[in-house]
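User: I'm putting together a small comparison set for a docking exercise, and I want a reference complex before I start. The sequence is below, and the ligand is uridine-5'-diphosphate. Could you produce the 3D structure with the ligand included, as structure tokens?
Assistant: Of course. I'll restate your input first, then give the structure tokens for the complex.
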Amino acid sequence: MRKLSILGVRVDNVSLEEIKNISLRLIAERRPSIFVSLGSLTVMLARKDPSYKELIDEAALVICDGAGVAGGLRYLVKEEIPRIPGVDLIPFFAKLSEERGCKIFLLGAKEEVITNAAVSIKKSFPNINICGYLNGYFDIIHCSAVISTIKRTAPDILLVGLGQPGQEKWLRDNLAELAVPVSIGIGGSFDVISGKLSRAPLVFRKLGLEWLFRMLLEPWRVRRNLALVGFFSLIIKNKFMGGKE
Ligand code: UDP
């Protein structure tokens, strides 16, 4: 694993094999930690919010989620890094659970979505150890009931789909109490796994256009995706102004 930076925000050059080894080590040590899945929008959020940027700096791992980040690094510093979309982390950790018996807790999305996601994951990975799941519609300040439910099941891995940046901030604020060795925000991935949202077809994925596909499914994302324009403008500005942030 090697720490890099894109537009001043940390991202790690890390392979799936390394993520597996780091996770197993953290689980063996019972050391509470946060992994961040970093896409172009995450970079833009971090640039505007120093406390979010600091959280990313201090994370145990920062995994490249999007084609924008991977392409930006290739363009700016000719560095190739693996792109591991958040939605692929679900089968990745499910397989780890099957192989090593790790306990996984799923938190986030609407009740029907998280229930269907749990059923669908269990169908694909019959030997997974899902120790619990809860929907993500709770009061993030007064959330002692949610925390005790999670703690009672003592997960090794906590997948949180509340959306960025709230999911990572919630994890940071409650990490010591949750005491989960591997916790990671996966945004709207439960919506995809449950079948509520379709995954982008392969051609969109290969071209790095998942964002366009999601925008077609959820037109209200247009405004949020304006931040992507900002991201690409900054990449180009950086390239030609000589700045290597
Ligand atoms: N969500 C939630 N609780 C909330 C708000 C949102 O569980 O209070 C869920 C929502 O149902 C969706 C996910 O968080 O499943 C957010 O997905 P989005 O794609 O907006 O997040 P991103 O992947 O962009 O971080």
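Strands lie at 2-6, 9-13, 34-38, 61-64, 103-108, 129-134, 157-161, 182-185. Residues 222-241 form the longest helix (20 residues).
User: Thanks, that's exactly what I needed.
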